[in-house]
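Can't paste images in this forum, so I'm doing it all in text. The chain is below; anyone willing to post the predicted structure tokens underneath?
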Amino acid sequence: MELENKVSLVTGASRGMGRAIALKLSSLGSRVAVNYVNIEEGNEADADEVVEAIAGQGGEALAVEADVRHGAAVKSMVERVIEKWGRIDILVNNAGITRDNLLLRMSEDAWDDVIETNLRSAYLCTRFALRPMIKQRWGRIISVASIAGVMGNAGQANYAASKAGVIAFTKSVAREVGSRNITANAVAPGFINTRMTEILSDEVKKTILSMISLSRFGETEDVAELVAFLASDRASYITGQVIPIDGGIAM
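Text version of the structure:
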């Protein structure tokens, strides 16, 4: 229970990688705020299911609805978590979307939606979570980037740009708050079995698998294990890093 008495806030935690991360952090003793946004039908029910799953394994969790693209909503979310548990120790910036298309066909809305959800949200959540972390002189900021932010990807100019921004943002934050015993790191998943990869055609999946040394897609639990490590005291001397978790994608 190496995260006992810690409080974690995980954005986009109602499904996929966020869900796996929330469950993993809880299994190590952390209380977990499960963030979700009520845009798609079923998100609230999914978040409640995560809370119930955490309670079922003996943990404590709180579902918090907030659109992390908007400062007022993020401020209110952080205040609610602090009101509930008195602190925030671990922030996982996981919320993210894709709006894929070739650049010549990419609309301004598709660009803006992805940048706001993937990058602006990391800025807002980190900004508001930092104050209590600085006060307690301990904190972990872990942002979910992507291997696309390292190597780029055709048809994902918006997504790759947002994730590259998350990486540079993380490195900058690490320099700003390291003296306060706060670390900031990014994880860069490759192709992970989530709803985002389920929609890929068999032909596309075959092409992708040929690029991966381990010849398989990753699981959400693989990412959750890495996030949990970075959240722990075992990673107390790691900051400003981007750690790929991609099965060995050939660049």
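DSSP finds nine helices and seven strands in the chain. The CA atoms of residues 186 and 242 lie 5 Å apart.
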